[in-house]
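Email to the structure team, subject: HAD-superfamily hydrolase subfamily IG 5'-nucleotidase model.

Hi all, the expression group asked for a predicted structure before they design truncation constructs. Nothing fancy, just the tokens so they can compare against earlier work. One-line instruction: predict HAD-superfamily hydrolase subfamily IG 5'-nucleotidase, return tokens.
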Amino acid sequence: MPNFSVNVPQLSSLYSTKTPKVRMNLCADQVFDKMLLWRDMSTKMKFPSFSAAELPDLRKSNKRRGSLRMIKCRAAGADGGRVAVGNDVFSVTTSSKYEVDYLGQSTKGDLNLKLDPLQSFGDGQATLEGPIEEVARTEAQAAENLIRELGIQGPFSAQHSPRGIFCSRTLNLRSISAIGYDMDYTLMHYNVMAWEGKAYDYCMENLKSMGFPVDGLAFDPELVIRGLMIDKEKGNLVKADRFGYVKRAMHGTKMLSNKAVSEIYGRELVDLRNQSRWEFLNTFFSVSEALAYAQMVDRLDDGFISADLGTLDYKGLYKAVAKALFRAHVEGQLKSEIMSKPELFVEPDPELPLALLDQKEAGKKLLLITNSDYHYTDKMMKHSFNKFLPNDMDWRDLFDMVIVSARKPEFFQMSHPLYEVVTGEGLMRPCFKAETGGLYSGGSAQMIESSLNVHGDEILYVGDHIYTDVSVSKVHLRWRTALICRELEEEYMALIGSRGHREELIELINQKEVVGDLFNQLRLALQRRSKGRPAQTLAATNLDDQELTETMQKLLIVMQRLDDKIGLMLETDGELFNKRWGFLSRAGLWDKSHLMRQIEKYADIYTSRVSNFLNYTPFMYFRSQEQSLAHDSPLPDAGIEN
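Reply from the structure team: attached below.
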């Protein structure tokens, strides 16, 4: 029987969308994922089959034949005609027959060969025989060649780019049956200066109507970043490390010195469970609130707030600011203005709808679960999605179920009445059971699980709020989770730009450790000498008193000068991202920020935008990276003693 090779069209040609080409090393399973995606798409979008005679360009060199060898199959007929690849060759592992792989992930959704693996191949059969180590080496190289020739961007290159999807906990996307999405700052990214600036303006107007002095204040998003905590007792914004120790702090809009931070927070940890004191800035929506609060703290400290407002402490001041911003959202003026001119507030992403289309065509059930109301959701989704979808699709066609006014995080924790939205004007009627294709208001996550017959780790939920979207859905339902954090792109580039600065800083710290170790040894020798005891070694004991003293003096001067230099460099570390707070994910030179610890704990994967899924496939197996430990540093063999 003749062999044939499948020629797969590039994704960019299917949708006339240009995606950047990134060179990469890719193993065979990622290439196979791409082939599977194209197979599904060609079935749904009526791409023609190709016979061997129609592929002369793919056989111009032995090298290319070698790279295509891995996708050759035995033809279904002996006449060299067209061949169908699909159900006759492959089967999909169902939810009733899945197993658990060596990384503890479900194999549901994996593709299997119906035929004998070696019998399925023609002249490529010999290449699959022999030790698997040799076979894997050969086929991995063939995969790299093929992925290069096809011009496909793959996941390994994306992991080393600002648009990568980063994995905290291993996730087999093939085993995911349903993917739920938040809308604001997830499926739709707002221009922060425009959206949060407008929210800030409305907040200031409401504060002014309440009697607060707001004249002369302006929106400055550089003052705050996501991941800070508001200390409502002390009027501070603080940045903590993964353990909860405060590393930087700002009182009002004035940064505090290291000494002041140590005096205020040296003996306590940030405890987010104490909600009466701490407010965590989970999302971009927190920017306007935190900025307004910091500015009002300055006004309170300066005595500009009228006594007519009563006796206000920092906690009472926070309540007033939160109330003013809440009014801006609830009274509808803010969203009405955004709906009237969405192009001024929304940053469109042409690739995002196509990423969701891939997932839907791969058999994933897509859900939209948002706290926004129906009118706002419909208006903004139409603006952001419809013009980028093929074949006159509407945004609703992407989703198997849409939930508006979901009231997260309660949506994941308890049940609320369910209403079906039955008209374009938003008219609703009570409903007791959700069905596929429906548009609903309220309800609960348990209702979704029951209606779609998917549960727990079969569902991936994607959102931008570390608590409302990610933490609660994981803790209460054991859903798999993905966090959207747009700032990752800027931070990634800032880290690259800071590489030289950080290398110099680390070199200085290492030099100080060497100098400091000698100083400490000489100090111990001096201490023992003063007590009439011998030093650590005979050579140290025989040191001249003057030589010992002068050497220690010189080392001490060097260390003090190093401290001054290192301290200054540490203060400026991360300023390419934010001059006040440094990097989003880091607290200090080596440690993680409290936000990063939350992301690692609750988000299985995290990335800057949903459209980054387009650089992967709906069948991707995300593997978490090795986690380093303090004692992982390798030691020379000669230094190891039994």
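Confidence is low (pLDDT under 50) at residues 1-27, 41-84. Residues 63 and 452 are 47 Å apart (CA to CA). Ping us if the truncation boundaries need rechecking.
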